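User:
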Amino acid sequence: MSDPEIEAMTAVATALGDLDEDVQGRVLRWAAERFEVKLHTGVRVLDGRDAGVENGSSDGVTEAEIAEEAPAYGHFAELFAKAQPKTDPDKALVAAYWVQVHEGNASWQSQTLNTQLKNLGHAVGNITEAMTSNIRKKPQRIIQLQKSGNSRQGRKTYKVTHEGMVYVQGMLGGGVS
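Assistant: Predicted structure:
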């Protein structure tokens, strides 16, 4: 009698076997997102008694620990080149990660991201749509903290979530997927 779970694992192993490690990571992240499966991180996972869970991290790893695990990049261009984001929401998220983790800003406005991206020649057509796409992901990769002004173009302040940080670290191949 065959075991469907073993057959699925064999099919995945066969499909990923000849791919580079970076490509394997992207494929697995896509599959996890597509099938809404929560992946556990490969970095120091703390048990439920540790501070990681108490600090709002669902998998036991805090945002500070993710930032500590972040590889050092001297310039945004280096981080962007390593991450190789393809979509506008991913480009915005990588820029947000840079501004929050590497520049140390607890929150920021979307214009800051588009300026960084424009300087690299990778401007996002509609930064608001890119931010909204990251907000609509389950789990959210970015959250809106506040809005000033009444118009649709009012200035909004954002923050990268724990899940957003983990996603970008996975893009960077930093041991987190």
